[in-house]
Amino acid sequence: MNLILYQINGERIDMSSRERDMAIRYLNKGVSLKEKGLHAEALENFKKAEEHSWEAASPALLATVMQNFGELLEVMGNEEGSFDQYSLAVAKLERLVEVSPSFKEQLATTLSKFASMLVDRGKKEEGKANYEKAVILYRELRREYPKNVQIRSNMISTLNNLGALLADMGMRDEAQWKFERALKMLDDKRCPAENYTHCFENKSMVLENLANLLIESGELEQAREKLENVLNIYFSLLDQGHMTELYRSRVALVLSRIAHLSVSLDRKEDALKSYASLAQMYGELAKLGPENEEMRIERASVLASMADLLEGMHEDNEAISRYEEALGILKDVQASEEPSKYPSMIIPVQLDLSRLLVSQDRVAEGLEKLEKVIELISLPSGEKDMQAIDLVYSYLMQICEQLSAKMGYEVPGVFAQLLGMHSKLSSLRITQEGQVCKARIMEALGRIQMDAGEKKLAVGTLMEAVDIYTQLNDTYNYSSEIADLSDIIEANMPHIKDAEELQSIYYGITEPLKEEGLVPEQTAHAGSIMDTQERLADMALDKGRYEQAFDLYLEIYSADRSREGVLNKAADVLGKLEADMHLNKRSGNILKDMEFLTKGYALLAEMEPADSEHRRNLAAIEKEMGKVLLDTGHVDDARQRYCQALDNYLVLMDMPGNKHHLKGMYAVLKELTALLPAIGDKEKELQCQEKITLSYSRMCELDPLDAGLVEDLAASLDHQASLLAVLDRKKDAYELLNQALDKYELLYQLESSYKHAGKAAVAMNNMGTLLARMGRKEEAKQMLEDALRIYNYLLDQEPDNTEHMVHAACTLDNMGTLFANMDRPEDAKHMYESALQIYMDATGVDPDDASYNEYAALTMENLGAVLERMGRRDDAKWMHENAKKLRNGEA
Asked: 352 pLDDT exceeds 50?
């Protein structure tokens, strides 16, 4: 950098003041120190230059100082400080350019650098905006200074960087346009002779970026063409003797990319040529000095890639030669370096060579190579990571499969050798891949033994393979293998009469299938397996093993629906168990037997939905289980069982000819209704009550003139409405109470009685209270008055009926509350007093019943509240005090 920094872009800035002179002095000194590598001292000078620039109020000088300051901070690794300095420099230069356009070049350079820093921080949109500003400035500068080499070079770099950013942002068309624009500026005719090398380097960089973009777009052929151009550029530079070692390294990298692209384009011959050139290039680089040992390793890697490609082209002998050459290089390098450094490179090459030798009938050589890999891993300093061991297991398995397909060898002996290798490997670490590998070897060996007529030995070997498959974490991936082996084993089992032996072999075959979700019909010997299964089920039933027998029968039926007889046998199992349970022939927990029965009957009902007997048995056992749970104090569990029984009776009601099950359903309803108060949760109680109401409704549909059922339905509707009211679902409660009143009216028509009239009055009282809560006061008043008229009539008929008295008093209390809310205190007072009089009358009839005291105390408190509103505070106080005494039993 020119040390006379106050002369910028050919214009000398007027620096007359002392502050400007000081700023320039410190700036020049800082630049000098920076170039000498004295960064800390340079930093101090730049700081002082910045201070004086601010004092001098010189934007041009300040921008120059800050740019140099930012560059130094970047060199020193202070990214935050550097970023801040560049940000300030950009701001200062943008303002300065508005006054003096001669600072455009400096602004463009700073913007481009600042954009790169923004991109590094993940601020891509801001970076893009700054790059674009820089490009605009460079375009203006190019028009002003068309022959300026530096401006042209900087613009190309900025276009290239912007293109790379746009590609990263997914804006491929725009990115390609930027790259092509940069390439146009890099045309050979426009590259000055004195800057030819730099021009070519820029061109190769842009071409590589464009190739990357084309690869991402799937345009592989065009990408390959661009890389070929890059290659030609580097070869041209090499021919001119420019930086030979550097350009050879770059040529190697480009050749590698061209080779991979050729493989992707299925241009194998071209790929092979690229690999050959690449191997030659790495060989030449390796000869440049001992420090280039890494180039030999790269050459070995290229040779291995060539071998893989040749194998795909069925040039197996050539492939073997390349693998051996690569292996030789790696072993030479290992011998001259630290021995433990290179096994991870040697192992995959030697494994590929081993596999290829076996495929070419050079089995002994191939297995020898494989043995050496295992020895290499087994060394104290050997590679024992899971990935390397799994890789060896994988190749061991591939070789096993290759040998299985071959004929003409002492095959059992070869497989014994493979098992020996597996044993050595598993002593280091047994992995999932290792387990699969052993299963494959055992499977292959078992099939060979079977072909050789050694049936018994083969069955044992194949059973061992099945056992290994079933122990895998992802057994489901090996379902077909398990099924195939099970077919072979089943087909070769001799006729076995001993039950225990039969069971052992049967489960050895079928359990793996069951775990994998396979059914016998998916195997070749399905009939044989299911016949054996049915025999086992019959034996289990004879021995009283009900659950085992039931499960076996259902498995058979699930696999083959044509075997309807086994489903009847399954139903018989449940019937026998239930009979034994009722005859007290079962020991142990009766609830456990009942749980099994419910599950069993539920399965049968699902399999044969048209058979009402299964559903009836299920409902009956659920009901019975509910009673047992209730008797043992499990109230909540009992309620749930009764609910399930009710659900099943409801399903039963939809089936034709099942009216005779009403009695069982009615018993469940009564038990369930009695349990409602114990629930303690109004939402759960409501859910249960809804089922009860639905059940009574369905029963009434079957027998609409049964007064008892109509009465139960009306009571259920009334109680459900009360629950809804408590849960503040007033509209729903109102609808149900209307239904309840309709049922009470029907009931009175069917069977006229004082009892029915009293229950209807209770429902009317509830409706009146609800209407009051809904704000429908006149309707509430009318409903309560109607209820009261019924009570008055009933008391005329039965004057000593305390139940009617209490209900009448409650209705009067509700009317008092209604009048109080209607601002009719005198009427409210009269109602409360009438209610209290009835409570006193009820006490006279039954002086031993103290339950009236609580009702009377509540009414006295309500009356006290009304008296207080009327200004009769003493009377109100007397009422509250006596209500308290009444509750405490003092009055």
From this structure: yes
| Among 64, 169, 78, CA closest to 122 | 169
Give me the amino acid identity at 487. D
Per domain, the residue ranges of the chain are 812-890
> How confident is the model over 469-479, as pLDDT tens digits?
878 877 767 77
| 179-229 pLDDT per residue, tens | 888 888 877 566 655 566 777 778 788 888 888 888 888 888 888 888 888
What is 812-890's CATH topology?
1.25.40
CA angle (185 as vertex; 183, 191 as ends), nearest 5: 105
Hey, is 552 helix, strand or coil?
Answer: helix
CB 612 within 8 A of CB 655: yes
* Helical pair 635-653 and 612-631, crossing angle rounded to 10 deg: 160
The confidence score (pLDDT) of residue 623 equals: 78
Question: What kind and span of H or E run contains 230?
Answer: helix 220-239
Q: How far apart are CA 881 and CA 475, in angstroms?
A: 79
DSSP letter for each residue of 562-598: T-HHHHHHHHHHHHHHHHHHHTT---S-HHHHHHHHH
Which of these, 194, 190, 187, 164, lies nearest to 176 by C-alpha position? 164
Q: Distances in Å between the alpha carbon of 640 and those of 164, 619, 634, 654, 675?
A: 68, 13, 10, 22, 10
Tell me which H or E stretch contains 304.
helix 293-312
Give 57: exposed, middle or buried? Use CB within 10 Å, 0-12, 13-18, 19+. exposed
For residue 12, give the 3-state DSSP assignment.
strand
- Element at 11 (helix H, strand E): strand 11-12
Spatial contact of 56 and 23, defined as CB atoms under 8 Å apart: yes
Contacts of 468 (CB under 8 A, 6+ apart): 435, 436, 438, 439, 442
Distance CA 69, CA 72 (A): 5
Q: What is the pTM of this model?
A: 0.47
Alpha helical stretches, state H, 405-431:
411-428
Spatial distance between the Cα atoms of 774 and 725, rounded to a whole number of angstroms: 10
